[in-house]
Amino acid sequence: MAETEQDDEKRRRRARFVDALATSAQQPGERSRVGTRIAGAVAIMALAAGATLGLGAWRTYQNAEEEKKQQVAAEQAAAEKKLTESHAAEQREREKREEERKKKEEEEKKKADAEAARQPPPPPPTPTPEKDSAADTLRDNRAKGPQLRSKVLLKNVATGLCADVPGYGPGKTGKSINQHRCNGTSKDNQLWDIRIQYEDRGPGGAPLAIIANTKDDLCFDVPTRGPQPPGTPLSQAYCHPGIEEDNQLWWFEDTGNGSFKIRNFASNHQCLRVGKAAEGHHDRRLILQSCTNGPESAWRIQR
Q: Where are the beta strands (DSSP E) in the chain?
């Protein structure tokens, strides 16, 4: 039997006992004494009933509070379980996306590798041609601005001979400039410096330069000043760098085959050429002459 039912049963018993006392109190001769007893018994029973009812109410309250606590705990556990399951689901989803991404990357890489395998191999790189000494000499000078390009041979394409100062030592002013078998050592005097004086004042923006012998520091020179006629022989003279109206300035026309026409700026752009063989083939003098497209007007600039 539940506690509540037991409490009800006790109350019913007390009620029946009180009714019995009240009935007996109606008998004659006992009213005064019995009344007193009844009053005391009723008071005791009332106190007992109040205590019993208070205890039952307290127990009911405690049971209700316990049920509430259990319900709250159950709800919290359910919420935590749901949150844990949600986090686990998100983690699984992230892992799934990462796996799909890696799989896609692998497929794309395999596809790219397969595509590359189907492509023909690239052609071998074109070998860089060796620098042409003449073209590179001028290009280097022009790129670097006015400065010395030292110790080069000037070799005529037609004769295969080089610009030369007679003898082996230093030349003198007014002495001729000839051609001779090439000798690029310091023992001879065939080495020349090309010194850029003006970066872009020549035709088409070409640089203007003087040509000085490395052994005596004398320059290619056309006699006097100003333009001179074809056939004028060349001599050595003191260099006059930077004097544009003098006729020691030369410019170089690229022929496109690794050689240059060396043209005098003051003398109507005539070319440096080899004169007639009046004194023998090897010592033919260098002169000014009209330019041609043949090898007689072409010079290679070599180290």
A: 148-156, 162-164, 178-180, 192-198, 208-213, 218-221, 235-238, 250-254, 260-264, 271-274, 286-289, 299-302
